């Protein structure tokens, strides 16, 4: 941590900073500039300390971090890339993993029809929402537990892993029993009570980025999942909130390379939630694969017009088929496959 | 809802839109422009329907809402301003309600000392965090249930209501027993599982705005709280995430008048979390009162240097005293009092 | 335009809206809902009228556009995609056009060395800044007119078109004489005085997106360039300002497909200014090509360490060579070439 | 400047950083942490050097500034607050200066009527646009030079200074002759060619904040104006672009106290452009005065319905009168007057 003293800070104020650093067990080095004094606070655990603990002291103008606030998710402490194994499907390896299926499970027929189709096109994992966090209390809230059973049936019948979202602590056990990957949605990325419970599992967790979380906050939230020893964490980029209003969320395509630089965790991209409209999904999906994403999470519905949730952003089956055919040569062009 | 057809949309496509509107029980009126057809979909319940249900249809270019997606929080359906009564303290009336206290309850001594001081300066409610949602798993997480008991003791001893945050469903009952207002934090504004449970209570709830939620989303989340009949909802503005980096969050001062125009619910402002630094708290607090906020939520600590959480944004007691003295004439200037 | 009246608006207020619409020569259709009246204002020129002209009238709650505020840049009025021809190099056709070179021209040697190298790798156009808009008055401001002569020499010697930025009206003629494409930088996207002058030229213009301009504002600015008959307009996406702080600007990858849907103009992407760091340039560049961009604008410097401007975001020549080799198979995978 | 080396950076890489710092004439101090080395680069002129000059070197992970990139606008180098004198009207003193008038000058009658009314209510300066930067080329562009003459007549007749916007270099002389304050609009905040010319004048300049400029960028742009010796610079906050869509721009009320902390320049607030709607202007105006702004810039029109530009955000004269009556006790409450 770098503590910048205000111009004219007194010796006592500087000493106060030094003493506080010592009280945390950190080392200190003073940099006496012509205008200002800068106190460098050193030690591998400074990332865990709050900058506020120093910024609050008299005579301090600004405090900047050197060590990142996350540790377990950081590549500095874990240089080798993590590969998450979902019943034999590897996320973070050479194969680009396509997860596809309906936003919400609406019926056994709808789920089965979609699962069969997406598997046939090369999808490696089936998605389907059982519990739906909806912005309006008047909207469809999901089939809940009966949807879990349908997902379970699909994974057995088609031999394909399934992913579904967990929205509260109460349902963790039920979901863990019926699904292969538990997804934490964007709105829950900083639901720390939920993250702490999930950390106790050994199931793979997909942690979606909050739509206004920085990459640093996202990786710090991942630390919650990793804290109790669960190493099966996948990151999910799904667009961020910006001023641009032609699209629901702006896909932060750069986060793929930023994550690859600073973290060892695999990252997948959800073009459907970013786009909010099926017309934009293919372009974003192709960009994500070319940029180096380890997979995609795509909403597919046999009849988007009749979808109970997010039909507008869902691809119908022919459009999904077409997209998969377009994605494969791009994956090949960058030395991967689908 | 206004459905704009693409240029050259066919009669069949227009009819398809009309039929869908009829299937929801809505009325329809066609507007045949020279370039485009516009279908107006009318009815008081169109706010509950998703725009996607129409946007997904072939030949549709864009769908715009007329009715807002929230209803119970809307002034259209409830023209009179709501006053929330907290054991005799009215929020939304002529008095500007100051809620003050430590970010986190750290000890009985710290809480009592602060409560005594802030009450002495004119604060109407004492705040204090028992359960703390922290961005890093390595940070202090609050004294939890023992803090609730300290809050309970303070409210009895000083005869002043207390407010504290609820972070998960499990602890709702315990908090409802010991506190007068339950606060939903910004990160939980769209934790719908939590909101649904709180809706069953009859306790006043402070719903803080998510730091990247629009005003419309905030009021739609308030509808969750109001849906089961709890009318005791207070809105809490605490700044939004923007590109500006000199301050933690940008205080959206305009939201006060926007809320007053579109909703009947009272609104208070938290200058401490927006500022992130005590130096900016007084200016924002004064602005909020002048702009018409019904109250303030201010962090005060007897010794900010030693605070376990957010010391940097906490006022010490002399600074809080000074601020209260400055706020009173402003309240008077706009015809209110503190 | 759709004018939503407030609940309880009077007949007189509605008539007032209708009369105003008629005074502009627009047609009107009334939609009498159960809760509210909606006035549809129809006509192909409504895009040119300000929504304010109606929003300001008593009893009006909200006004929404149907026709976009831009017209000349719109695909509705010009369905066929525009191909801009730069001395035989076609932008918007099947070839993905790579423009590469130094941020600022620093010397004849630096420019020539870079031009030779990038042409050798397959770049179709050479870039180089002569006039530099710098955020600080203490920074290097460009070699100005002497740089223009170096660019001119390069285009003659290597038979390759050159692009450079125009920052004020005074230098338009000099730049038009020595360069093939005139670039309007992000900070000048809404410098309407400059756009009006450029509209009188017949040179290709690259209009970079302002870093906080919406796509709609960007296309409306393009209308300024097209208004006097110059049809040679290329759009340049270079990232937008968001809250994310790991990168200089967030590349808005979705804008490529949004632009392709709503406009006939070609679009190129500048990964260098978005990234702000060379490490992120290749990933963004690959994404842009896969997403359907018609070209890229990449900063290359023979020795980035010694660059006077933006060295951090510049690729050195070996890294540019490597990137070009990676981009070619991606272009091929989507049916294009470089 | 603080240069953070990557974990495992070599001695040669560290030496390279040190040598570069020495080459700029800076001092260096090394901080050898257990995990990383941090190089502190010291000297009062480090603010003028680009962080890129170090970030580009091999083995460097991150570079943070200590000295701000602006200098002349900084309170560190000019501790005393600046008072700008506009023909006897002091901006930055105890009086809160209200500048009011039409967005665009439309006729002599309109301007005179407005000027008379606003002066009568206590406005100290009259505003009126002669040259209008409009987002669409089809919109009214201002009366230009004939408007300047009307402004000149008003200032003579009413003995009140006038402010108008300058949009290009060509018209600086004409405007300087007829107006007392030259306003640089938000879209031109980083039009450096324009700023450099204005720096040569001795007229007061109002520099509006770009709607997506940080406070740091704003003050750095002010350095352009101050660089040639013009000390008469006023800052103008007018809202920033955010995701919130209920209002045109989000008023960054916090910037008032941030500016007061880091700069000696006076700051005024424009609630009209932020709000975009007259209904929100009074609340924001009151907040700005309470927060410590040195003045306000308010759009007033005798008949907003008929305004050619921005009628929706203009107050009519009775509403302006009412607002002035409300502002005066607030100014008094904070020890100032209007």
Explain what this protein looks like in three dimensions:
The structure is a homotetramer of 338-residue chains. By secondary structure, chain A is an alpha/beta fold. Chain A has two domains: 63 residues, Phospho-2-dehydro-3-deoxyheptonate aldolase, domain 1 (Alpha-Beta Plaits, 2-Layer Sandwich), CATH 3.30.70; 250 residues, Alpha-Beta Barrel (TIM Barrel), CATH 3.20.20.70. Chain A is 33% helix and 18% strand. Chain A contains eleven helices and 14 strands. In chain A, strands 7-8-9-10-11-12-13-14 form an eight-stranded parallel β-barrel, surrounded by six helices. In chain A, helix 3 packs parallel to helix 4 and helix 6 crosses helix 7. The longest helix of chain A has 17 residues. Chain A is elongated and about 75 Å long. The two termini of chain A are 43 Å apart. Chains A and B meet through helix 2, helix 6 and helix 7 of A and helix 2, helix 6 and helix 7 of B.
């Amino acid at each position: 941590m770098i503590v910048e003293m205000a111009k004219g800070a007194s010796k006592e104020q500087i000493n106060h900073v030094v003493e506080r650093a010592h009280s945390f067990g950190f080392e200190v080095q003073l940099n006496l500039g012509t205008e200002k004094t800068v106190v460098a606070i050193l030690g591998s655990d400074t990332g865990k300390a709050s900058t506020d603990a120093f910024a609050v002291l008299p005579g301090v103008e600004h405090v900047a971090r050197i060590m990142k606030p996350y540790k377990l998710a950081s590549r500095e402490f874990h240089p080798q890339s993590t590969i998450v194994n979902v019943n034999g499907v590897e996320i973070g390896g050479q194969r680009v993993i396509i997860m596809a299926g309906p936003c919400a499970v609406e019926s056994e027929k709808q789920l089965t029809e979609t699962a069969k189709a997406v598997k046939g096109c090369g999808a490696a994992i089936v998605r389907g929402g059982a519990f739906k966090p909806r912005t309006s209390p008047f909207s469809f809230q999901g089939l809940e537990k009966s949807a879990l059973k349908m997902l379970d049936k699909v994974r057995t019948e088609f031999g394909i892993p399934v992913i579904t979202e967990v929205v509260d602590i109460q349902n963790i056990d039920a979901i863990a029993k019926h699904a292969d990957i538990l997804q934490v949605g964007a709105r829950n990325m900083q639901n720390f009570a939920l993250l702490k419970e999930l950390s106790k599992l050994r199931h793979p967790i997909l942690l979606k980025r909050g739509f206004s979380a920085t990459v640093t906050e996202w990786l710090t939230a991942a630390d919650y999942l990793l804290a109790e020893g669960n190493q099966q964490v996948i990151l999910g980029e799904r667009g961020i909130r910006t001023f641009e209003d032609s699209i629901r969320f702006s896909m932060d395509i750069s986060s793929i390379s930023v994550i690859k630089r600073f973290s060892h965790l695999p990252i997948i991209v959800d073009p459907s939630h970013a786009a909010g409209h099926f017309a934009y999904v293919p372009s974003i999906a192709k960009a994500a694969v070319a940029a180096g994403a380890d997979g995609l999470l795509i909403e597919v519905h046999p009849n988007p017009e009749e979808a109970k949730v997010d039909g507008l952003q869902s691809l119908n089956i022919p459009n999904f088929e077409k997209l998969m055919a377009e994605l494969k040569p791009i994956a090949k062009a960058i030395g991967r496959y689908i």
